[in-house]
Fold this sequence. Notes:
Structural class: alpha/beta
Order of helices and strands: HHEHEHEHEHEEEEEHHHEEEHHEH
Helix content: 40-55%
Number of helices: 12
CATH class of the largest domain: Alpha Beta
CATH architecture of the largest domain: 3-Layer(aba) Sandwich
Radius of gyration: 21 Å
Distance between the termini: 20 Å
Strand content: 5-15%
Amino acid sequence: xxxxxxxxxxxxxxxxxxxxxxxxxxxxxxxxxxxxxxxxxxxxxxxxxxxxxxxxxxxxxxxxxxxxxxxxxxxxxxxxxxxxxxxxxxxxxxxxxxxxxxxxxxxxxxxxxxxxxxxxxxxxxxxxxxxxxxxxxxxxxxxxxxxxxxxxxxxxxxxxxxxxxxxxxxxxxxxxxxxxxxxxxxxxxxxxxxxxxxxxxxxxxxxxxxxxxxxxxxxxxxxxxxxxxxxxxxxxxxxxxxxxxxxxxxxxxxxxxxxxxxxxxxxxxxxxxxxxxxxxxxxxxxxxxxxxxxxxxxxxxxxxxxxxxxxxxxxxxxxxxxxxxxxxxxxxxxxxxxxxxxxxxxxxxxxxxxxxxxxxxxxxxxxxxxxxxxxxxxxxxxx
Length: 383
């Protein structure tokens, strides 16, 4: 029996060992652990890669979302936080941090349903809420789930039409694209995560805010270090949310491999899809085509015959790790009870939580392991 993990970070480390060890060694030599030179270098390199004016390193992807929203509250309202009457539209089919950041910024999350083909927020549902909702919508947080872009043409049109800000949640989609633009460069701001399991991950928590807006960038830089340019005389209610030098160094070392590794993920996804295309009872991810460049943070199948949990158990017995991202939609979590709004139901998101299954897609995954996973799925559905 094989042992196939969802992600093998040790394998990745061995592949990049010389680069990572050298980067850490430089930190040990200069001992500048707070705002060391690697932080600025990483910000500049990623800003150039994305094609944005500003990138601001922060302590996590969650804080990237919170700081972006807080900066927008200060800029747009002249207040530290949004009001509960201020509504921000997002998806319920995402990690907790997306909705939680809206609460932490003082606003009310509005959850609208997803497109079941992409698992991303459905622009048509956003338009329905904007037409019929009774609240004061100020912004949208589209989540590029699993590494696949939302329909950013439609998102941008909606934002312009209704004068809304847009914060892209790019935690799972570093390097992904919509048409000819990198994700995180299209909205008012972008929020990235460098959590170890991400396509570009460090050796701990880390994140980044991207923006072309000078004021948002300046405010984010103030908020991440207690709320002011001078930490002994601060302007705003801030955070200790700096990206530490060591994490910046590790991410810098891994950054040179991001295009190669994203392409490897796409090749593995292509192999899965080719092998599993004739299996009845599952739905595969969308095809690899323009206008989006899917970076497959996750390869997600949908088990439509009610046997998702049975399949997961069967694969575990064969030594194959799988995950369910996500088993509970945000609107059913205790933290959001009485704190969210919706217009006409979230049935598609709820159905997705019962059907999705995420397969191993380690960039250095051996072809034999990919085939082993696919063949065992095929065997399960032959029973």
